[in-house]
Amino acid sequence: MGKICVLRIGHRRNRDQRVTTHVFLAARAFGASEGVLSGDRDEPVLAGIGKVADVWGGGFLVCYAADWRRFLIERKSAGWKVAHLTMYGEDFEAGAKKLGNKNVVVVVGAGKVPGDAYALADYNLAVTNQPHSEISALALFLDRLFDGRGFPHRVDGKLRILPNKCGKVVVRGQNR
Amino acid sequence: MGKICVLRIGHRRNRDQRVTTHVFLAARAFGASEGVLSGDRDEPVLAGIGKVADVWGGGFLVCYAADWRRFLIERKSAGWKVAHLTMYGEDFEAGAKKLGNKNVVVVVGAGKVPGDAYALADYNLAVTNQPHSEISALALFLDRLFDGRGFPHRVDGKLRILPNKCGKVVVRGQNR
Description:
38% helix; alpha/beta; 8 strands; Alpha/beta knot
């Protein structure tokens, strides 16, 4: 499997803070190794994700890119593929298959996405061509990219949950 | 396949409007037939979802239930199963298999979920035991409930998208 980077473009500090946070949390939980924010610079969002990765494990990196076009062009020239999730695109399952084990930047827009994002993407992919949420679209696309081999099982966090029938069991550290 | 109802509990009008809307949109897009809101009564959220269902097709119903405990007890006495999505629960894929083709209420909490939600649920299920989003958790759980047979293909909306490599193609009506 290649590396997955999730790029959130057009973030608006006042409106999108919670949804953008969910986008990056889903990215991390479902196997991306990197989250890149563009649009409004938003330190609380980046710090919040960084803290989650610290507490719950895994090496998820977050950073800010002022110029997302340049970021995409640089990644493309380094051999990465770009998949843009949009309700107007082609079938995401076929797209995930074509991407195979390449390094992929997954572009997730907030608000209206500029036309050149569509042109810069190698694939514009839709999860159902119906309106729902960039968070659910990302979750299902990452699931298919990993081809049902499941999600990373993290054991290096400061906290860890023991699955439970009817309650909450959280343990500290990794080998206790 | 049985019927799927998504019950959002603990909704807070000021804080959760957007995330709750995404929860219901994902519910509809991924095959639930019904969305039930509890917590703060929030007509704009219900009206917004109703409008999406009208424009994009499918028979998705939304309503408000002041007392979610009573709602769950009534559904259980009518033979429905209750699956509560929580990061503290057991593996969601095994849970989805056990639910087979039964009618299922999927409980999705906002904020801290009261303990009796765990007790009223037949299954408390986690999508990874890692923090992410109730929206991504719901999307993956519904996907597994439908067992990879794909999502409803709606052709009865006023608008419909034709999948496109690099742009937006929206058509009106169902047979044009």
